[in-house]
Amino acid sequence: AAAVSGADAAADGRSCDGATDVKWGPLAASLDSDAIVVDFSPKGGPADLRGVFDPSVPGIQWADGNVWTKLDGRRHGRSATDGRTAPAVRALVTDLDAAREVLGCTACDASEGIYLGDVTEPDTLDPATDGVTALAIAVGVGGNATEDVMEAVEFRGVQNQVASLAASARKRGAALTSLNVALISSMGTTDPNPAPYEGGEVLFYKLNAEAFLGASGLPTAVIKPCGLGDGEGSEQQLLTGHDDTMLTSVHPPVVARADVARVMVQTLVERQSGLRFDLCASLRGPPTTDGDLDALLDGARWGWQA
Predict the structure, then answer these.
(1) How far is CA 271 from CA 60, 80, 98, 177, 302, in A?
(2) 208 exposed, middle or buried (CB, 10 Å; 0-12, 13-18, 19+)?
(3) Cα 135 from Cα 265, distance rounded (Å)
């Protein structure tokens, strides 16, 4: 015996977007070696529709001519490590060509969870935040940015994203406490006059964004990495702390971007909030696995939060 569940787009002619989709099932089904027979009658379909897995698609070819294509779990919400179904993911991008290259999208539009927008232009954010419950903020400016651009992106841009998320929640009658926001900021914010190679003026605006989040009324987490590297994730021991102490106690103070992303995703999937912590990596010690991340986040809390 088996069961099949799924979702349909909320309106004809639209693709599923992971937010407004209409869920259905479970529907009764039976399996044999290479086929599945499903009772679609509760949805107004046939009572014994047969489907066969076709590796050339890859996916299920149904007797009525429909095809269900197998989705890549890394891009469509299936955890590659523990098999759990994660929420559908969207991306706000400023360049569709870059999105196509980096994210591997084809249409690179809302049908694939890709939204074109600019955090400095609030009106462009609402389509992306419509129906969203968790927000991962990873905006940043280049080293040659002017102070006006730093403020617009690193501070006002964070405000704009959170305001759009909150407005979407209020519009659909959802409580602000049902949301979750994670921000990638930076270590180095305890220095009132950081040198350019330590972050420079941009750290002032990152710190303002952190303060804004703390007063926003939303559940939030702030991740403050040390120097960023381009190495593979899951290869080093991750360390958490506070108040920039690891800038002098960890040598070299570098953490892989992939590991920062892993930690950020974990805070959102597990709805961790009330967190603001430094993140770095050590060349000594066992690598931090995905299974270790909850303990890592627990260790990032202050003693009185335990």
Answers:
(1) 34, 19, 30, 11, 18
(2) middle
(3) 10
Q: What's the pLDDT score for residue 55?
A: 65
DSSP 116: E
Q: Are 135 and 180 in contact (CB under 8 A)?
A: yes
Predicted confidence at residue 262, as pLDDT, reads 97
- In 15-139, alpha helices (H): 96-103, 126-129
CB 293 within 8 A of CB 300: no
Q: 202, 258 in Cβ contact below 8 A?
A: no
Tokens of 176: 């602000």
DSSP-derived pairing of the beta strands 227-229 and 49-54: unpaired
* β 134-137/180-184 pair status: parallel
Nearest Cα to 280, choosing from 298, 220, 245?
245
Q: How far apart are CA 36 and CA 30, in angstroms?
A: 6
The tokens 């014994």 sit on which residue? 48
pTM exceeding the 0.70 threshold for the entire prediction: yes
Any idea what the Cα angle at residue 37 is, between residues 69 and 49, rounded to 5°?
80
Residue-wise pLDDT tens digits, 114-138:
999 999 999 999 999 999 999 999 9
Distance between CA atoms of 260 and 266, rounded to whole angstroms? 10
Helix (H) or strand (E) holding 158: helix 157-171
Q: At what angle do helices 202-214 and 157-171 cross, to 10 degrees?
A: 20
Q: How far apart are CA 127 and CA 302, in angstroms?
A: 37
217 C-beta neighbours (distance < 10 Å), count: 12
**Other Cβ atoms closer than 10 A to 268:** 20
Q: Is the peptide bond before 55 cis (omega within 30 degrees of 0)?
A: no
278, 283, 286, 292 alpha-carbon torsion, rounded to 10° = 20
Distance CA 266, CA 143 (A): 29
User: Where is average pLDDT lowest: 68-72, 155-159, 235-239?
Assistant: 68-72
Q: Give the three-class secondary structure for 240.
A: strand
